[in-house]
Amino acid sequence: MHLLTLALAILYKIPFMYHLLDHPLITHKITQLRRKETRTRDFRENLDEIAGLMAYEITRDIPLQDVNIETPLASTTAKELARDIVLVPILRAGLGMVNSITHLIPTAKIGHVGMYRDHETLEPKAYYSKFPANMSDTEVMVLDPMLATGGSASAAIQECKNHGAGTIKLVCVVGAPEGLEKIEQDHPDINIYLAALDEKLNSKGYIVPGLGDAGDRIFGTR
Ligand code: PRP
Ligand code: URA
After folding, report:
1. How far is CA 10 from each of CA 102, 103, 185, 216, rounded to the nearest angstrom?
2. Considering the entire predicted model, what is its pTM?
3. Whole-angstrom distance, CA of residue 51 vs CA of residue 141
4. How far apart are CA 19 and CA 54, in angstroms?
5. Marked catalytic residue, from 117, 186, 189, 217
6. Cβ of 166: how many Cβ atoms within 10 Å?
7. Does the C-beta of 210 come closer than 6 Å to ligand 2?
8. Is the distance from the beta carbon of residue 148 to the nearest atom of ligand 2 less than 6 Å?
9. What is the DSSP letter of 126?
10. Is 92 in a helix, a strand, or coil?
11. 86-114 burial by CB neighbour count: b if 16+ within 10 A, else e?
């Protein structure tokens, strides 16, 4: 754990259920996201690549099961994923993380949670949700590039739990200490994966230094 991360963890009583995936390739790509001159196309590409690199690491503990197969030479007992994986992007910005993960895990099912922050109160407003039928024996990955106050992620995790999800992981690219604290309080059972832990939120609830409004930068709005 980096010294700055450790200091922030102690200062903000940050949970240790969180994992910082600070691989050099990921860190380099986050720098491209942070640059204000990075345009929509490059922003999308870098974000999607980061999500794929994170997913590779996050899925390390997914259970496998034995399966009997025939190779061209012999019968053998091999292994395959034992559980369905469900991706749950938080609309809109979480959509920017889906593509590369579904390339890695083509059998993944995808649920959606629509959530936007009220600009005044910073409270999440839910406007849509749709989940696969049976979530109980699945590995759920809730996706959102930004964990700011943590309100949106916490509400999305609750939606997943309401639909019977068992194992849930929260996967965000850039987070603030305030968001980590909120998830730890509301959902102490959840593992949180970040690629960068930033310093703080500003008075408007934006992560500093952060990368701005992720949804707008992915979709070229505003
Ligand atoms: C952004 C982001 C998260 C949320 C994070 O979405 O993608 O969902 O804010 O903030 P929080 O941790 O304080 O809840 P936004 O509300 O801007 O919606 P959008 O993705 O549709 O632009
Ligand atoms: N949502 C974003 O898109 N960016 C932030 O910095 C905070 C919330």
Report:
1. 36, 38, 15, 33
2. 0.93
3. 11
4. 11
5. 117
6. 13
7. yes
8. yes
9. E
10. coil
11. bbbbbbbbbbbbbebbbeebeebbbbbbb
Task: Give the ligand whose atoms come closest to the C-alpha of residue 153.
Answer: 1
DSSP 72: S
DSSP 3-state of 216: helix
- How high is the pLDDT of residue 14? 53
Closest atom, ligand 2, to C-alpha of 213: 3
Which residue type occupies 209?
P
**In angstroms, rounded to a whole number, what is the distance separating the alpha carbons of residues 122 and 48?**
26
Q: Is the CB of 213 under 6 A from ligand 2?
A: yes
Residues of the chain with pLDDT under 50: 1
Beta bridge partners of 87: 110, 141
15: tokens are 């949970």
What residues contact residue 170 under an 8 Å CB cut-off, 6+ apart? 142, 144, 147, 153, 157, 183, 187, 190, 191, 192, 193
Q: What is the pLDDT of residues 185-210, one digit of tens each?
A: 999 999 999 999 999 999 999 999 99
**How would you list the strands of the sheet with 146-147, edge to edge?**
146-147, 174-175, 196-197
Cα–Cα nearest to 31, from 18, 5, 22: 22
Alpha helices, DSSP H, located in the chain: 3-11, 24-34, 40-58, 98-104, 151-162, 177-186, 214-219
